[in-house]
Design brief:
Elements: H1 2-9, H2 13-23, H3 30-47, H4 52-56
Helix pairs in contact: 1-2
Length: 59
């Protein structure tokens, strides 16, 4: 549990959002936020690398 607290404390706005959702007992929103963050990272990765033709086939 201490590892998760230290991870979220160093992760910026996304970590603050997760901590807020946890403290406000909005646990059902955490998977949605995680999926949105992962989706955003995939899109950023697709634009910045030569792997983009392969990632575009996923969408």
């Amino acid at each position: 549990m201490r590892f998760l607290k230290s991870f979220f404390s160093r992760s910026g706005e996304a970590g603050e959002l997760m901590v807020f959702l946890w403290k406000a007992k909005l646990w059902f929103l955490i998977p949605f936020v995680v999926i949105l963050i992962v989706f955003g990272l995939v899109l950023i990765f697709a634009q910045a690398s030569g792997v983009s033709p392969f990632i575009y086939t996923l969408f």
